[in-house]
Every structure is written in C-alpha cells, then in structure tokens.
Amino acid sequence: MASKQERGSLTIEGETLIITNPSKPLWPEVGITKLMYLEKLIQLSPYLIHHCRDRHLTTIRYPHGVHDKSFYQKNCPEPHPPFVRTRSDGSIDYAVLDSLPTLIWLGNLACLEFHASFELAADPQHPTEWVIDLDPSLEEEPRIMEAAAHVGEQLAGLGIQSIPKTSGATGVQIIVPLEDRLSFDELRSIGQFIGEYMTQKLPHLFTVERLKKNRGDLIYFDYLQHYQGKTIAAPYTPRAKRAATVSTPLTWDEIRGGAQPRDFHLLNIAERLQKHGDLLLKAPKQRLRPILEFLRRK
C-alpha cells in the first residue's frame, strides 16, 4: 500500500500538477497504478478530450481503486486550479474537459470514468448524433455482438450508416452522426419505430421493456435513454471494471467477427488508436429527416 505522504509532480503544457499516491493500485488485477493510469490518459487525451470538451461532464471517482467505494461528480471538484475551466447550466458548475492538464488533474483525483452529455452545451435541444443503447439483461451476454450486428444491418437497410461502440461494460451503443438538426423527441420516435420492429423480428433476442425484472434474458433496445440531460460513457473513457476496459468504437467487421467488449482495455487501446485512429471522426453524417417524415405520414 502506498504511503499517504507519497507525492510526485508533472509539468504539462506549462502547468505543474502534484500527483498524490502515484503507486496506488487502481485496477489491481491488471497491475495498473495511478501513475500508469495517468500515462494511459495522456495517450487517450486527444480522443477523450475531443468527445468531452463541448459537453457537460460527469465523472465517477474511485479514490481507492475499482474495488472500493465510488461516487458520481457533476460539479467541478473544489478547490480547482486556475487552468481548470467551468461551465454552468444554471444549477451545476461542470468541469470543462478541454485540456491535457485538466484531464490529468481529474485523473489524479481518481476519476476513472468520464461520462458526457448527449447534447452539446451550446445547443442542448439538438443532439449531434443519434444513439441506440443495447443493454444486456444478463451479467454475461455472449449474444451482444450478434444483437448489434442485427441492428446495424437493419439501419443499413434503411440507408443509415452507423458506428458501433462498446460501452466498456457489457453493452454496445450504436451511434449515427447527424446532418439534420433534429430534436431528442424526434429521434426517440425513430428509435421507437426501429426498436419495436426489432422486437417483432427477433423476439428471442430483443425487448423494449423498461423494467429489468420483466426482461428475462432479452437484450434491451434502449431508445429512451437518448434524452437531454442524460449521459453516455464517452468514447475512449476507461471503465471501472476488473479488466480496465475502455469504451471503444469498432468496425462492423469486428462486430461480425466476434469481438467482445473485454477485448479493448487500457493496456492495448493506444496501439489500436495508432492503427485505426478515431473511427467516429471518420463516420459520415446521416440524414434522418426523410425517415421521420415517413413515420409522420403513417
């Protein structure tokens, strides 16, 4: 166990940060200490910051590692250094994750997960992407990639290109970058249409039942979570799981090839990003208004 007095310092972009308990184990099963975690955050920073900087940020802090107590933090931790900017929505003063020093400061506070709002802070009414969340009812769900592949094929059949992303836990999110300026309500109506169709087509696999106790072993097609004020595990956030998994965008070939969420973690994510880059940045924006207009005519 690291001494309480153990400290170090890092100078990043001209800012000096005090690092406390650098040898504290955060993910003990895979040997990741706090200092190793900060090194991994530096590797992830261009991607994680890009997907968080313009959104409201919620972090989950694990002061003593993934097997101890945790808490959600929406308000920016206090006191905070001058280089950490904040943004208010009227009731919460969020930390703005827009720089590497801010990311490392949060990492030193044992923020192990970064969850971003669906909406941009500057335009809360019109999300920049449509998100479907596939949420297993079982702790271990070997069919999750099969389920994601079915949804991806259905969207493709409607002329919609999408990007699957592991949640870093057990689920998969399917993301559609938007060209249209649509509201959350409009997008949920499309999600309801697709979700109900999938449950009729594959009733052994999907459900739109909100209550987990009533889902049995079915995978929840969650179109309701995509809502102003809600959050999603940000692309490239670590997760507080034993394997130090990372929420990772994938290709549809990887989904069909049997990739699993546990395959993508802090120990290999940098190599993946060097090879593939950010798949979300490469995804073309889609027009969903024609589908919405079709549904309104039904």
TrEMBL record:
Organism name: Paenibacillus herberti
InterPro entries in UniProt: LigD_pol_dom, NHEJ_LigD
DNA ligase D polymerase domain residues: 34-279
Domain of life (superkingdom): Bacteria
Stored Gene3D superfamilies: DNA primase, PRIM domain (3.90.920.10)
CDD domains named among the record's database cross-references: LigD_Pol_like
This protein's name: DNA polymerase domain-containing protein
Alphabetized Pfam families for the sequence: LigD_Prim-Pol (PF21686)
